[in-house]
What we know:
This protein has helices at about 1-20, 45-50, 100-110, 145-150, 155-160, 180, 230-240, 250-255, 295-305, 310-315, 345-355, 375-390, 400-410, 430-435, 455-465, 470-485; strands at about 25-30, 55-60, 65, 70-75, 80-85, 125-130, 135-140, 190-195, 200-205, 220-225, 245, 260-275, 360-370, 390-400, 415-420, 490-505, 505, 520-524. The chain is α+β, with helices and mostly antiparallel strands and about 525 residues long. The chain has two domains: about 25-240 and about 505-524, Periplasmic binding protein-like II (D-Maltodextrin-Binding Protein, domain 2); about 270-495, Dipeptide-binding Protein, Domain 3 (Dipeptide-binding Protein, domain 3), CATH 3.10.105.10. The strands form four sheets. Strands 8-9-10-1-11-16-12-15-13-14 form a ten-stranded mixed β-sheet, sandwiched between helices. Strands 4-5-7-6 form a four-stranded antiparallel β-sheet. Strands 2-3 form a two-stranded antiparallel ribbon. Helix 9 (about 295-305) packs antiparallel against helix 11 (about 345-355). It holds the Pfam family SBP_bac_5. GO terms for molecular function: peptide transmembrane transporter activity.
Amino acid sequence: MKKTMLTLGLTALFSQAAMAENSLVWTQSIDIPTLDPYAFASTSALAFQNHIYEGLVQWDDNFNIAPALATAWTQVDNETIRFTLRKGVTFHNGNPFNADDVVASIERVTHPDSGIRGNASSVVSARKLSDYEVEIKTTPSSPIVLNELTGVLIMDKEWLTANNALMPSSMSLGTESFATNNANGTGPFILESRRRDAQMVLKVNEKWWNNAQKQHNIDKVVFKPVSSDATRLAGLMSGEFDITTDVPLQDLPRLEKDPKLTVKIKPSLRVDYLSFNMADSLNAKNDFDANPLKDIRVRQALVQAVNRDVIVKKIMRDMTEVANTYVAPGIAGYDASSQLELPYDPNKAKQLLKEAGYQDGFNIAFDCVQGAYINAEQWCQAVQRYWAKVGINASLNMHPRSTYSTIRDQGKTDIAVLGWANLPLIDAYSINQQLLHSKDNGIYGAFNIPTYRNDVVDTYIEQASTELDKDKRVALMAAALKQAQNDLPYMPLHFEPVAWVTSKKLSITQQSDNVVRLWKAQIQ
């Protein structure tokens, strides 16, 4: 009898302990494509990886550079920064953090096959001075190297070596490594398990170096990709899920009426675009060899054939506005005076096509991604219909991100979908350097999907990369954007809204970069 009572007592005790655990379920429509922080330039991937990994520096709440794994830094000369590293930090497997890890991480991120090489364009190399001091070589007089280093998450050299992962993987190249599905960082949460396209579990890092200043009270995070909008929303309303960061905009009014939920909406830094294939030939078959998209009149026609205001009103539910610039107002380099003036005018579109010699239209390949951008499937279909009205036959194919990235990044389509928020830099140098500068198979043009080239734009961007005077640098970036916008390698659609829905029990700050920071959240 005593043994039975003792067993029941222990069972009740363990049950109470389990109930006391602050567990949270985070869902979105697609899985995090990779856990390798150098494999893919993705806001959603970086947001998740930041719960596990940390950089030498980080953004504070006001988007100022703050210490992280480095406690201090000094500019030695115009291409050298010396960092003092934080002592007493350990990786999740118990390995100590030191300069060897920084050097290995810098070598990995600057490798030509790194999927985020463009995000570290001003970083050249790293040299160990002592166990807790490193020098990082940069391009001369780089004004944005610290911005870039916020996105260079530090990995454990011993762990990489033991698992044959010293070389980076790349989603664009279709490569994977041990780091794709496994993780070992220094951050506030530890990866407990990963089942691709099903579930990932994080547990709190009880040995986190920053626990004395810990802002969160979360013990466990369960991340679940749920492709069905209806299932995801039903889970929110039933209490199964605690936060989702991609919600069908048409469902927000209904969710706002639910007393158990909080709806958070604000403008984001991301612009959604369509890219125009400006190579010598189209991927789609036609009765001619020339590429019509190389003609500026054709690109202008394709913009003016689409009623972007209606797309914003009907598909984006009037929760944002048409983008007539390549960057959002919150990005350094934005210039409201240089907005595109290509309003909806199908008659003008037909006239431009006729002037270019394509009054009978032509065929183009159009590839759209599922789940990556809000309501992209709907607005891709709308664009296809608008183009059909002016004689353009766009063959539209929908793809999951896992296959879409290769199609887009390797130029296997004529019209691609792309969203760009200029993270982690929060600076127009990001789009200028990665989307608008011509490809050099190095730091420039990594996501120049159209294969666009303008030597004047290249010169502005290169000058901005070494200009330390802030006003002059911003002017150079704005000049590059203005010229590129006039050349129209991309068709800007709209600024993507940030729409989150959370349970009332979750207290979390939503920012315009759309990054979920659960290490700063509280469960009530």
